[in-house]
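We now fix the convention by which a protein and its fold are recorded. These numbers are not coordinates but entries in a learned vocabulary of local backbone shapes. A record is reproduced here so that you can trace the correspondence yourselves:
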Amino acid sequence: MWRYFNVKPSLQTSFPVLVLLVTLLSSTSVYAAKVTLDSSSWGSEEGKACVDCHSKSSAGLTHQWKNSAHALANVNCLDCHQAYEDDVDAIEHEGSVIATIVSPKDCGRCHVQEFKQQKGSVHTQALSIIKNRMPALSEHFGSPSINDAGCAKCHGSEVKVRGDGTLDPASWPNSGIGRINPDGSVGSCSACHGRHKFSKAQARQPQACIYCHSGPDSPDKSIYESSKHGMMYEANKAEMNLDSDQWMVGKDYSAAPTCVTCHMGAAGKMKSTHDVGMRDSWNLNSAVSEKQYLVIFEDGDKRELSASEPVPRRGESISKMDGSMAKVKAVASPKRRRGAMSKVCLECHSKGFANNAMLQFDNVVELYNEKYGKPAQAIMQEMYSDNLLTPLPFDEPLEVTYWNLFHASGTMARHGAAMGSPSMTWKGMSELGSDFYGKFLAQIREVAGKDKGEALIKKHINSSEHHDWLNHPGKANPILGFGQGKGNED
């Protein structure tokens, strides 16, 4: 059970490494060779035949392509879909050898920098999270059919190829951002740049992100829409210049920031990036938030490292996520990552304004950690150690309650503070407090027994200044109808 809640003391810091190690060792680690592209041969006659045929069989698809930057550059269907005969997913189609899936490795033949930046990013790890860190959610609460139609649509599937080269319908169609492709690459460019127009304007709008970043465990849709940023975007869409080639805030547009502006966009001297997590200095979805280092290896791979772990030096060889050893090229500290994010803020805000906003955000995260995250985790650790809970995930109400504390309401509060939504910050903290005091503590007493439960609560909760009010049960509380006239309503 501990592995789903990060509460096992001896493995707590090394667990993320083990998670991805298992996933990557079980997947293809070497990219398949790709058909070489030459701009002088774009728009081959064979590709034109594809357009002619598909204009009749799937007119909407070709209409999208005809309005794309690809069509303007004379890049047609075969330029992207052409494959070698010995490719695992190669099929013969109307006299041509093609692959159905156009992977990031295919796109990277032309979009070299974008491919390098997304390699090893948090997006490419999305499938490993759902398969290893949270399998009980999909296995116990769901079923394979729900996974295929739900979880995998965002996290990605491991695409299976059948003996005749066609794709297993359980794993395809899929455009999940962490998809493992038949050629060994990870990711899906069409998750943001929908096929077959592959519009940069579409990817820059918040709708491209909130397709997945919504719901109780990733409530960013509601947070953005209830923030000043979201309000400004909704009111000023026409001024966003979304089709601009460079799209630098403060130069090409200033009406409002979107998700891409802050997490990926160009600002001042800082270039845009497809490493969407590079500017994130906190982990905001775990039981206890920690600041994060980003280790960048010489081969371009990356690895997140919690601030509580030893930080490697440049040139030092350490284990990558797939278990292999590699030399460290650079390490981005939490301070440096925060600085990168702050550079975006400074295009529209003063330094003092931005710094104070970041401080308010940090204060919410620290409050969550000290008041709820750390004491709840300590209690769960002790209950597992004392065999008061079974190792089986989610077979007891207390485990579900604990999960929701940090993964639902706790995530909402922390994300709300990060993205400037006072209503969602308040809602997250309010629901967190209600569930903590109203459910979690009661279930501790029920599971551990009255005496043991009270001892755990006294040790980890009542001794903290954040919960000192629990030590004064006789204090007037007019808000609930007790002690009217004896004190002011809190």
